[in-house]
């Protein structure tokens, strides 16, 4: 993935994590980072917060475009299958980082 796309993905994930902090305090406690897979509706962030069901509406996302702008999903337009896979792998790592940051704050 080119650096600019990765930087944008990081900003989106941070935006999503901050939104979750505000709207679903302690969300990170429910996330199993060992099984986190942002390309799978059952084990992505939203899926794990919703009992294994990918339903952005159930977690209160303000719009369908929020899935992309908050780093919960990839916008498939303009991505080949391999680029999309690479983007999801980047989302996996970025979300794991956000979860770890929040867990570290509790420990310290």
Can you characterise this structure?
The chain is an all-alpha fold. It has one domain (3-107). The chain is 53% helix and 0% strand. The chain is built from four helices and no strands. The chain has helices spanning 3-23, 45-49, 66-69, 81-107. The longest helix is centred in the last third of the chain and has 27 residues, at 81-107. The radius of gyration is 13 Å and the shape is globular. It starts with a helix and ends with a helix. The model has no long low-confidence stretch (mean pLDDT 87).
Multimer state: single chain
Helix proportion range: 40-55%
Element-by-element helix/strand order:
HHHH
Unreliable runs: none
Number of helices: 4
**Strands, total number:** 0
List the helices and strands and how they pair.
Blueprint: H1 3-23, H2 45-49, H3 66-69, H4 81-107
Brief overview, please?
The chain is an all-alpha fold.
List keywords for this structure.
single chain, 108 residues, mainly alpha, 4 helices
């Amino acid at each position: 993935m080119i650096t600019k796309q990765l930087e944008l993905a990081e900003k989106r994930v941070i935006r999503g994590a901050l939104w979750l902090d505000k709207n679903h305090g302690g969300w990170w406690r429910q996330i199993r980072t060992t099984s986190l897979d942002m390309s799978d509706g059952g084990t992505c962030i939203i899926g794990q917060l919703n009992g294994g069901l990918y339903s952005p509406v159930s977690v209160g996302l303000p719009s369908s475009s929020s899935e992309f702008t908050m780093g919960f999903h990839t916008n498939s337009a303009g991505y080949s299958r391999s680029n999309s896979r690479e983007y999801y792998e980047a989302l996996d790592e970025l979300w794991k980082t956000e979860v770890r940051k929040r867990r570290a704050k509790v420990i310290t």
